[in-house]
Amino acid sequence: MPNVVFVVGLGPGDPRFLTAQAQSALTQAEVLCGYTVYLDLVRPYFPDKLYYSTGMTKEIDRCRWALETARSGRAVALVCSGDAGVYGMASPLLELAEHFPDVTVEVVPGLTAALSGGAVLGAPLAHDFCVLSLSDRLTPWEVIERRLAAAAMGDFCIALYNPSSKGRPDYLARAVRILLANGKAPGTVCGIVRNIGREGQESRVLTLAALETTPVDMFTTVFVGNAQTRQLSGRMVTPRGYRA
Amino acid sequence: MPNVVFVVGLGPGDPRFLTAQAQSALTQAEVLCGYTVYLDLVRPYFPDKLYYSTGMTKEIDRCRWALETARSGRAVALVCSGDAGVYGMASPLLELAEHFPDVTVEVVPGLTAALSGGAVLGAPLAHDFCVLSLSDRLTPWEVIERRLAAAAMGDFCIALYNPSSKGRPDYLARAVRILLANGKAPGTVCGIVRNIGREGQESRVLTLAALETTPVDMFTTVFVGNAQTRQLSGRMVTPRGYRA
Q1: Which residue from A27, A131, B78, B168 puts its CA 20 to 30 A from B20's CA?
Q2: What whole-number distance in Å separates Cα of residue B141 and Cα of residue B171?
Q3: Which domain of life is it from (chains A, B) (predicted)?
Q4: Residues of chain A contacting residue B238, judged by C-beta atoms under 8 Å apart
């Protein structure tokens, strides 16, 4: 199958979260390409492939390499953690693919952390929800602030991605203060999940007030409930109905 | 494996969207239980199971039946389309499971339509997004209106579930007017996907203004872009970065 780039969402990484479609795309591809850490997750299960890995910030180089390799007749799988679309490589790949009209791009969805982490906690996103990244690497902080305020005003459940990193240890605390200032109650039920589906997975249910002073790292996904969310036997459960 | 209820997200229905974990849960279960239409999707692949199906509005009966059956020693899989958590059965099951302390509930995530439909369109949800249901069966319309306004004010990408049904043919048009009144431009790039991953799948990219007068049915998921979303070679692509 020449001239194709599959952009494949791996989910959390462990092969039990792969869909049959993702498994098939990885099998069909001759070359697997992606960020080093994600490639290392699949390498043990596909030992006979060619591998091309790049650093985290080299996304455009990676897309160009994938498209050029596909054009030369080798099927490529560009792998992403989570979903291929959600903060993933499908978007820059499709942008660049405008210059490669002879290459087909096939987007293969995967379990984003909102779903895989949600399942660990219980059912935190059973009603209307937002997914929001706190990383300001590609987005101005003012846009992030405005979205946090809007999510709170709508009383959405929220999944927060990239809640922290070395350069910005206080971003989650800042986000919590914006949510509190825009209508989320301090007692709102929240949850955190670390290392979803990997060794050392841990999770915890806590209040929004407690979240403000809880240290988290870049391997953590944070969940904020709506006004109806409850803690039940240690799980975070949002009702499907919304009673006023 | 007695005394367990797996609540399993099937994704769009076709087995190629099942994760290995979901496949394993369905294999381990002795009884498969769920809404008739979803059970019919998996029946051909698991012919040797016991099946218990109920109508669409009998969710609580189904949960009670699943928990009672698990308590009697038979492993049960309660199946949902899409994800187990997102508008799914994990939430009512975990609520009712408070009365069945001897039964274990295991939530098995699956591809919700925002991800599976997003992959069909390209990468519509590559930046911060909301998932919002237009069904007012369990949620007052005022809450839905308030969330639509908040989603527009935050310039989120949006996936709209349940955009229409027989009893409310005009809900999508009403939703579009709320989005327009709260800051979404008429030219915002949007997409619709019908019968995701099933026979007769169809998709289309159009503007928000055009969406207002486009008829949709209950098998359709609607995507609304943010201010940066573009149409590229017939696909809907939201950039990962957000330029002001």
Answers
A1: A131
A2: 10
A3: Bacteria
A4: 91
All CATH 3.40.1010.10 domain ranges in chain B, comma separated = 4-108
Which of A83, A109, A119 is the closest to B85 by Cβ? Answer: A119
Tell me the fold of A4-108.
Cobalt-precorrin-4 Transmethylase; domain 1 (3.40.1010)
SS3 label, residue B176: helix
A1 has a pLDDT exceeding 70: no
Give A232's strand partners: A235
Q: Rounded CA gap, B36 and A74, in Å? A: 43
CATH superfamily of B113-237: Tetrapyrrole methylase, C-terminal domain (3.30.950.10)
Q: Taking a contact as any Cβ pair under 8 Å apart, which residues of chain A between 69 and 88 contact chain B?
A: 83-88
Contact A86 B17 (CB under 8 A): no
Written as one letter, the residue type at A110 is G
Chains A, B: CB pairs < 8 Å: 242
- CA contacts within 13 A on the Cβ side of B42: 33
pLDDT score at A179: 98
- N-terminal to C-terminal alpha carbon distance within chain B: 54
Summarised one tens digit per residue, pLDDT across range A76-128 is: 999 999 999 999 999 999 999 999 999 999 999 999 999 999 999 999 999 99
What per-residue confidence (pLDDT) applies to B2? 64
Cα A236 to Cα A225: distance, rounded to the nearest angstrom: 8
Q: How far apart are CA B144 and CA B139, in angstroms?
A: 7
pLDDT of residue B244: 54
Residue-by-residue DSSP string for A14-29: SGGG-BHHHHHHHHH-
- How confident is the model at residue B166, as a pLDDT? 82
Q: What is the nearest CA distance from A210 to chain B, expressed in angstroms? A: 24
Mean pLDDT of B75-98: 97
Contacts of A128 in chain B (CB under 8 A): 130-133, 139, 147
Average pLDDT over residues A217-224: 96
pLDDT, chain A, mean: 95
Nearest CA to B203 out of B185, B212, B216, B213 is that of B216
Picking from B98, B119, B130, the nearest residue to A232 by CB comes out as: B98
Return residue ranges of chain A for CATH 3.30.950.10: 113-237
- CB-based contact (8 Å) between B24 and chain A? yes
Tell if the CB–CB gap between B153 and A151 is shorter than 8 Å.
no
